[in-house]
User: Fold this.
Amino acid sequence: MDNILNSNPQRYGVTEKKKSDIDLLTSQVTDAQAVVDQQSTVVASLNQKSIKYQGYLLDAESSRTQAKSNKELVDQVVQNGLDLFQNSEIAFSKMTVANEATEEVAKEVTVLINKLIYSVEIINKLSNLVIRKKSLNPLISDDLITKINAAGTDSNNAIALTLVALKSIFAAQSLSLESEASTALEQKQALNLYLTLTGKKDPQETFILEGNNSVQALIYKANDEAKANYLEANKANDETTRQLNVANINLNKAQVELKSLQAALAAANAAALAS
Assistant:
């Protein structure tokens, strides 16, 4: 009876210690499971956040690409407008010089016609005089009269041809003036287009973005904003990725800890049952 009483307290102490160890491990497993659940929730939340921010980044990239394309396009349009203005200016200048030269030729041809008409009058008077003299003096050569008449005919033909040439000059001058007017209009419209697109008051003016509400300036601003938005979206996406990586590491650690405690608990339970 004394042996039984003496052995029971020791056995009871061992059993209570095992139960205490099992209770401690059970509590630790429960806590570890809670940590795993918490970390799983964090990872799931960050996964959703990462997907959302990746979408934001794709949208920002698309906007940045489109804004860059718009900037390049408006630069091309502005350059085309400037080229058209400058080419029109050069063409107008050359047409003005050509018109002045044509006008000078027309004046010279007019002077020539006047001289030819005067020559014809002289030749006609000479022809009439020779014919009258011929009637008084038969010795005057008929060949002389023929040549004088031929000279009159040639002079009249020369006048006719010169008049045709003068008519052609006037026609060319008229077309040239019309072309000059069209080129002047084209030059004015090209300049207006360029100034409207850039917001400048003069083609030589330096492009200033601040305070400029022109088409080019607005597209430049949109391009700058798109680049800034992309950088912000990329930064947010990188930060979310970093947070997700840290959360996954913490989850893996918590899962390893949970498995270790679960194994220890299972071993403790097995040992308790075997004793």
About this structure: Confidence is low (pLDDT under 50) at residues 1-7. The longest helix spans residues 2-136. Residues 87 and 187 are 8 Å apart (CA to CA).
